[in-house]
Structures are given as structure tokens and as C-alpha cells.
Amino acid sequence: MKIAIVQPARDRFDKAKNLQTVTRLLEQIHDVEIVCLPENWAGVIILSEAELAEVLALLGRYAQKGRYTLLTGSLIVEGKDFKIARGHVIGPDGVVLGYTDKIFPSNAVGERAFLRFGERLPVFSSEKARFGVAICVDLFYPELVRALAQRDIQILFNPSNIPENRIALWRSLLCARAAENTIFVAFANNTKSLYPDDRRVSGHSMVISPRGDVLFEADDAEGVYTVEINLAHIAEIRKRWPYLADSLTVEKVEGDRVVRKTL
After folding, report:
1. Of 59, 107, 195, 237, whose CB neighbour count within 10 A is largest?
2. What is the pLDDT of residue 171?
């Protein structure tokens, strides 16, 4: 199956310009199963419920036209008494299937001063694959990804906004999460933009195999990057690396002792 990573050149504060950029890129996509946008591709803005509905309706039209499942990455949205980072999943019929929250807002860039901790970490299905979404720094929490893997996801999508000087670290995390759970991991990043502290954000979106190998890594160019993956490789690799199955046999750790479940 084919997945597509959208890597847009993002203006930090111009939502209208960013919408034009993303829709122009989505217009180019066809013959893929799943498309993923990065985190905060619309800019560092807060969307009202009405504005969010407009954006989702617009993106839904492109998903329907291209007949793909579209991950909206993550947007900062405002509820009645809270603000939260949230990524929606839109089916190929243009209908919203659900959403994933950013479970742990980034303390490093001050998100916890205004964003609520997330609660929803669901599993989704496209025609050919089961997948989950871990938004940006949620990748740092292996228990979140393991919880998704134990619910039989085959692909983890990581929509993010990562500065250039942290790409090497991010590559290591992506490879570790892929190998320890024997799943594909796809990272979508913005490019030609700036981080909250003015560090450069320069793309390098990538896709990792269940062996922890980098199948594809973009440069800093804006674009749509299509990668073909073979889900059958997961079962092959798990015959040699039963890490996920082994994890299910551990009930708890009491002091120095590992207590195993009776299977």
C-alpha cells in the first residue's frame, strides 16, 4: 500500500496562506491509501469550533476527491472551557472518523501553560491498514505507542513540528518505536518555518520500517512524498523479533522481580 506525507512550507501566523499551501499539495495526491499532514501546519493559531468545522469540511472535500484517508496532523482547537491540540482522521468519503489528542503538551515550549492534557488515543482503520497517531512529543512516551501496538496497529503516524537541530534525535526515537513494536512509523514535519524559539524547522519527514530502518527521508523541500510499504513484512519480522508478544506476558514488576502472566 502507499502512504503520502505532506511537508508544507509553513508561515507561523498566516492561516489563509497555509490553507492555500496545504490544499494545493493535497490536490496533487492520488492513488494512495493514507495521507498525513504535520502538526500545526495551519500556523500557531487557535481555531474556534466554527473555524475547525470549516477546515475539516474543506479537507474532507479533498479526501473525498482523492479517495484517501486523511490525517489532519494536529491543530490547536478551542472548546467551551479549554484549548487542546487535536488531530482528526477523515475517511475517503469526506466524513470525520474521529480524533486523537496530544496526550502530553510540550513543557519545553510552554504548551502546558494553555493547553489541556489529552485523553483520546484511538485506533483507526483504512481499507488496508490499522493505524494510530502519536502527536509530536507523545513519541517520547513508549507506553503510549506500545498501548497502540497492543491494539494491533500496523502503522504509527507522528505528525510533528520538529526543529532542524533535533532531527537526529527524532530519527532515533522513530527507529526505536518502530523496532520495539515491529510496526511502520511515519513522521510528517513542516519545512521552511520556525520553531517557537526561532530555531529553523526544515522538513526531513520520514518513514521507518518495522526493523527500525529508514525507508525514506525527505530533504527540506516542500512537497508530497509517497512511500510504498508492505504490511506483510510485519509478520515476517515478528517471527524473529517477538518483542510485542513478549510484552503481553509481563503482568508487573515487583521490586527486582518480573511477574509473568499465566497464558
Report:
1. 59
2. 98
